[in-house]
Amino acid sequence: MNAKMRVDIWSDIMCPFCYIGKRNFEKALAEFPAKDSVEVVWHSFQLNPDLTYQPNKSFYDYVAELKGQTREWSIQVHKTLVQTAKYAGLDYRLDQAKVTNSLDAHRLIQLAKKYNLTNDLEERFFRAYFTEGALLSDHQTLLTLSTETGLQPDVVKQVLQSDLYKDKVRQDAQRVRQMGATGVPFFVFNQTQAVSGAQQPKVFAQALAAAYEQWVQTKNEKIDIVGGAVCTPEGYCN
């Protein structure tokens, strides 16, 4: 397998800026000349690990309480957010978004790493939450969405009926905090430079180009070899 430059992304599937950041990054990557040499690795970060499902609380009320503001303030602020999402090509219907805990969804994202399906599952969860009003703590909903992206139902059920991958979710969050991140989305290019937030595609394009140039230089560094007696796979020793 040919070596690829890594881009590590931390996000929460209930974070509106994470979905926008994902789409803007994808636009930059699609135009990047060396896109086939880039590997994207998704990581978990729960913005509110202690959050519980609150069926009688709207997304607007939840954010208003979190910020110590009124519902009217929240609605007005999110009108701008919805427009920003629209510019990115996304259809946000926040009046349908259900306030709940995202741990089980993140555990399935960890599972998806084994099958190279994390990007597909992230996308499906984002769309389900922000556009379709899906309850992303409901196990049947998670099962349906996960199998749509290619995960096997029995494997998904095994995870949902256990505590599998809880530690992985927490370790992901701890790792990015150690890097100095205070929120998500958070993008790390080639483990050398980071971009925080839902930046415009041109910002991601610049980061990709700079990181890739550095990666190529490191990859092509020659190793000085001191000659001596060796044996080769062909059986020659000298």
Automatic annotation (TrEMBL):
It comes from the Bacteria. InterPro entries: DSBA-like_thioredoxin_dom, Thioredoxin-like_sf. Gene3D superfamilies: Glutaredoxin. Residues 6-209 form the DSBA-like thioredoxin domain. GO terms for molecular function: oxidoreductase activity. Coiled coil: none annotated. It holds the Pfam family DSBA. This is DsbA family oxidoreductase. It comes from Larkinella rosea.
